[in-house]
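Try it yourself: sequence plus iron/sulfur cluster, in.
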Amino acid sequence: MAQLPHGMMGVDDLDLPAPTEGEKVSKENAAYLPVSEDPATACSACKYFVEPDRCQIVTGAIDPAGVSQFFTPMAQNAPVTSPEGAPLEMPEAEV
Ligand code: SF4
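Structure, out:
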């Protein structure tokens, strides 16, 4: 899995304020794609996604169907929805 850029690692753990838009990673540097090949790894299933179209760490408007190299799944048991807001069935995690 890709590492977050320097200075953004451990943000969740350190309880720091969310980065401002100017501190976020560009879509280019995040290798953002507007459509993920796999809905299970789309922005709408990522812990950094902010409804309806933002990301905590990548700049600009974010499509819920998109994806970047920083995709990080939400915590288990968190509701995951399709871009239309419908609940998605997530596969059981392999242990
Ligand atoms: S996959 Fe996650 S980190 Fe990447 S752009 Fe989408 S919401 Fe942001």
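One thing you can check immediately is this: The longest strand covers residues 49-50.
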